[in-house]
Amino acid sequence: ISKGILAGVMVCVSLTGAVCAQVVPGAKTDTGFVSYAQFTGSSNSTGRVFELNSTIGYNFSGHFGVDVGVPFYFLQPSASTGGANESGIGNVFVDGRLSFPNDVVNFATVLTLAAPTGDANKGLSTGRATFDSTSRFDRTFGAVTPFAEVGVANTVPESQQFLRPFTTLGFPDFARFGRPG
Description:
This protein has helices at about 5-20, 175, and strands at about 30-45, 45-60, 65-75, 85-90, 95-100, 105-115, 130-140, 145-155.
């Protein structure tokens, strides 16, 4: 990874936090600017993929908010797969979030739209706009929170269990890329 790219990523992460309003301790924070950076990764026999995702958004109420984000990927194929290390910006995205906490069951839904800004030749984009709409129902019982999610999308979304080293439209070809996990 070049020093210039790494420096650029660090500047983006730093500026994301600086743009956001500061929270006063004890203040109610249902509305206002929000920001976060998340670094995740996965590894399997085909290689490793890491994602640094910087997001900034605004909560209009305790129930509705919007975000815009830019993922940055670091791909390291295994020696058996061949290929060179790659890195670059993924698809810039915007999402709208609705949430309705309740004593019986919590409900949240997110619609995410992504522009094809990533390099399709590196596998960081499909070269087309994508969408993902996911709804979640959950309820906490002590330290356990069972949940159900349902969604529809024209791409394979990322998951917390496995960060895919590719972007695809439709169903992935697991025989080519290896099974998750």
